[in-house]
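Re-run with default settings, no changes from the original entry. Doing this only to confirm the output is reproducible before filing.
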Amino acid sequence: MKKALRWTGWLLAGLVFLAACAATFVQVRGIHSYAPPRLALAPVAYTPERVEHGRRLVLSVCAECHRDKQTQRLSGQLLRDIPAQFGRFYSANITRDRQHGIGGRTDAEVVALLRTGLGPDGRIRSVMPNFARLSDEDVLSIVAFLRSADPVVQADATPSHAQEPSFFGKVLANTIIKPAELPTQPIQQPSPTDPVAFGRYLVTSRYKCYDCHSGDILKTDGQQPEKSFGYMGGGAVLQDAQGHDIVSRNLTADPETGIGDWTAEQFGQAMKFGRSPNGPLRYPMPKYSLVTDEETRAIYAYLKTIPAIKNATPEDGPAAVAGR
């Protein structure tokens, strides 16, 4: 009996020692770096049509995180919607400044970063969404706009702030958070004449609504979004402008706790102007004012096809939340 207890004690001590070694390794290593992605890319044509399309995409998808509210340039800022347990994270300077922005990077490096989440230094942008499934035309349009003369991307010498991950954030960056693979085939956008397919593309690839509107930001599936935990059923915990917890909205077609009783017009008003049937939407939900009516109708059509999840969020009122 004593021998068994002695062996159990040694085993526990060994496990504690290994755990301490692993914790020390993660703490010292920090955010893991990878081999920089290599992408062969034909010269990008910066046509006026691409620049305009890219302007709409960048101002809809990128500006909310990257825009400095004082200068209105995309020179980076503190990301206030990330829960404090992950640490403090900052968006990068993506203006045309050659030293502190992306002016010195090639188009291939910018595309690879968008696709994989890895920069030319191999460092993973652990809180930046990757756009591995974004259509080739959308990606090239973003690049064309970032190279344009628009005021928001003009060179700004503000250095990108170093990230400040917590220990938990470092653990995630060394375990769960991984870079995406570069596509091996061309990616085409579905035709808007098929609103459900087009809406799925917008939700899963362009605007990436599921990243926030599923059940847990750590349990989303970047390769097969529909397999994300609580897909589009809401419940992910984010931070509001004051640093308080805020829960993402249920966007499935459940009539009691989702958008099942909303009209397409009401959904469009919520997405574009932040006016929902339940009242004004709060930060970190941006106002997608540049999204077209065709796009909001397509997203609405796709959301109506997703299996409904009954998951009350605070917008449904205390009684609904208590009964969920």
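The two ends are 50 Å apart (CA to CA). Residues 4-29 have pLDDT under 50 and may be disordered.
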